[in-house]
Amino acid sequence: MKEGVKHVVFLGETRFPYGLASVQRLILMSKALLYAGAKVTVICRKGGWNENQYPEIDYKGVYEGINYIYTSKSVLKPKGFLKRNINKLKGIYGEYKYIKNLRARNDISVAIVSNRKLVHVLRFLLYSKIFDFPVVTNLVEMASAMDGRSTLTKINDFFLDKWVYRFFDGAMPISDKLVSYYSKTAPRKPYLKLPILCDYEKFDLPKTSEAPYFLYCGSINYMEVIEFILECYKALDSTEAKMYMIVSGGTERETRELQDKINSRFKDEPVQLYTNIPYGKLVYLYNHAIALLIPLRPTLQDTSRFPHKIGEYLASGNPVITTNVGEIKNYFQDKETALVANAFDIADFTEQMKFVLKEPRRAKEIGKNGKKLGLSNFDYHIHGSRMMEFIDKLPVSK
């Protein structure tokens, strides 16, 4: 390793570089570290892509300055139970060899882990002990607080939250709630509060004229929030703007059922559903919305997290409509940098949507102020040096 250059590796992802929020955060953390002078490598143990889905991806290469490798030597998800499991074993063995070789060259400074499955987390902790390098958890949610989980997943999350996290050498929690949790779980371990990150340059694009629409982007796993958005739009009772919904993570059946539900509730198709759209289309829809919606609930799950898309919403320069929950209280002021409903309440939230229609000039000014706030707090460039200072405080490998 070049003298004085730290090498940060990321462990646990399987869909770099085109995954959803967790992968986008990983990319932005990596770019922040690169900007601060570090070397970065993303280690994926196996591929998760279908054939011809992303034909330009080789099993190893460089993406936006970030080194990456799939240690199974394939980016594809094999067909068939036996082939898939053989591929997983190849990936784990390749992962072990790759990390061993890095350590032999004294070319690993720290590993950052986002994965929440115990079998993988414990393996990464074992690597840390065997090869003597510090390992940090990228802490973005309280997994055990999430609803709708299977029994096995709940058991996994319980042990992870209550026991395993204390064995990491440090943490990068995304919210005050997670800072408090980690401080109690591992009181002698260092942490760095690392908020949402965004690459604002990707949103600095010319805008065209579009028919007005509100936009919501989220996972199909948050069906309660999707229902809430639909009820708010129904209560808006206006034909001035349509509702666009970008919903990810669902099966074909789940997406079809959601579309059927929307069709049965609204006439004349004022609600348009998008799934599996490319990132460029996502940016375009963000940039042209009259307002972007992200209601947070007063639950442990939502007070602990800080959704990645808020940073991207702000980067569009359009007003964000949200609720006064969790990290929102730390950054935003109603009618100044965002439109903030007092509660997760249909009437309160709908009033903020009505404000956008009644006061379009003020709404645009709020959007501009929100973008300035985002640039000051969430632009990835400003966090690289903070991350490097934190890494410097971790135990040094021998």
Automatic annotation (TrEMBL):
GO terms for molecular function: glycosyltransferase activity. The keyword Transcription regulation does not apply. Keywords: Transferase. Gene3D superfamilies: Glycogen Phosphorylase B. The keyword Transferase applies. GO terms for biological process: lipopolysaccharide biosynthetic process. Residues 202-372 form the Glycosyl transferase family domain. Pfam families: Glycos_transf_1. SUPFAM superfamilies: UDP-Glycosyltransferase/glycogen phosphorylase. It comes from the Bacteria. This is Glycosyltransferase involved in cell wall bisynthesis.
